[in-house]
Amino acid sequence: MLYTKTVRKKIIYIVAGLCILAGILLYSTGQWRKIYLFIQHTYFLMHLSVPSTAGSSIETRYFPAAHLGNKMRTLRVYLPPHYTDDENRRYPVLYLLHGDPGDQDDWLINGHIQQTLDSMIVNKQLPPLIVVFPDGQGTTILDGQYLDSESQNQFLESYLTTDVIGYIDSTYRTNIDRAYRAIGGISSGGYGAVNSAVHHSELFSVVLSQSGYFEPLGSTGQKLLQNNSDLIAYNSPPKFIEAHSIDQPLNVYLQVGQGDTEYYHTQTKQLYDALQEKNIPASIDVVPGGHGWGTWSVSIQNALMYLASKWQYAYEPAPKPSPLPAAAKPTGTPNTGVAK
Fold first, then answer.
1. Is the Cβ–Cβ distance between 228 and 221 less than 8 Å?
2. CB atoms within 10 A of CB 244
């Protein structure tokens, strides 16, 4: 069937209009993130190197998160080779956060982290450890920046520092001493890791940031914190460090790519200077590459080497701890205001 030129133009306009409408709907509902992550994960799966044969495993866990309205959340958990061989052995834990858009699969698929961990453990560059990959997306605003937001009733920092850690410590053979617990992440995950660590130095001894920023980002960050200057300062690590003491020793690794924009370099330098002013051990590592997985999947080895240097790992035949009590109902007070 042949169409006239006028009819063909109308069809093109209709199709283009439908595509634009679909794009608007996908963006407004956040569904574009799912499509983006599907395409991204598919791409990196196609380029995945030879699967690991070192004997490590990845487990998937689902649990209700008290600070996110008891909604079910997904965790991926890396267990090192020989984890099941000795029921008395306990392991240090690294919590590794994704950026935005992102989810709990990013490090495993985009970052090929299982292969990296296996290689470093086998070559004794890194002690055997448990690595946890939480889903850090918000329930109301997906780009939650790992913040406690009372206005949005999503408490992502408390979810990480209370719900996730409590669940992991009651489920796996973890070394519950803060000296053997670390947190890290990329981009917004780097921000979330540093922000959580300076607020909760009683929980972490090491924090790793790759291409992080260190203030609530953009209009979304302002909305999450209701444009409240006190909340914004509290959740800006350089300002928080200037105004508060860090109760427990903390080691901070800050990585930035040569190709990262000036914003990330400036943010990293500002945080480093604030840490130095308070005599908090910190290191800046400028690596080749820019703001993407092509850089992070390789340069994570630098971050893990730093972590290994801070963990004087010891075998600990301690009994499995009792499950922690249920998390308290979130009120927004622990991490959404100026510390008392």
1. no
2. 14
| Nearest CA among 211, 169, 215, 223 for reference residue 195 | 215
CB 253 within 8 A of CB 209: yes
Residue 186 φ then ψ, to 5°: -110, 145
DSSP string, 79-102: E-TTTTT-TT--B-EEEEE--SS-
Q: Which run of H or of E encompasses 149?
A: strand 148-149
Q: Are 58 and 76 in contact (CB under 8 A)?
A: yes
- Is 269 in a helix, a strand, or coil? helix
b/e code 81-111 from CB counts within 10 Å (16+ = b): bebeeeeeebbbbbbbbbbbbbbbbbbbbbb
Tell me whether strands 130-134 and 93-97 are parallel, antiparallel or unpaired. parallel
Strand boundaries in 231-314, DSSP class E: 251-257, 282-287
Measure the CA–CA gap between 273 and 291, rounded to whole angstroms: 22
Report yes or no: 264 and 211 within 8 Å, Cβ to Cβ: yes
SS3 33: helix
Per run of 10 residues, the mean pLDDT along the chain (length 340 residues) is 58 58 51 56 55 83 95 95 93 94 86 93 95 90 86 92 97 96 96 96 97 91 91 96 94 97 97 96 96 92 96 51 45 38
Q: Are strands 57-65 and 71-79 parallel, antiparallel or unpaired?
A: antiparallel
- Rounded Cα–Cα distance for residues 27 and 20 (Å): 11
> What global pTM score does this model have?
0.81
Cis peptide upstream of residue 81 (ω within 30 degrees of 0): no
**Structure tokens given for 288:** 């080749």
Give the H/E segment covering residue 32.
helix 31-46
Identify which of 268, 262, 270 has the alpha carbon closest to the alpha carbon of residue 285.
Answer: 268
User: In the structure encoding, which two tokens stand for residue 97, read together?
Assistant: 């956060």
282-287/251-257 β-pairing? parallel
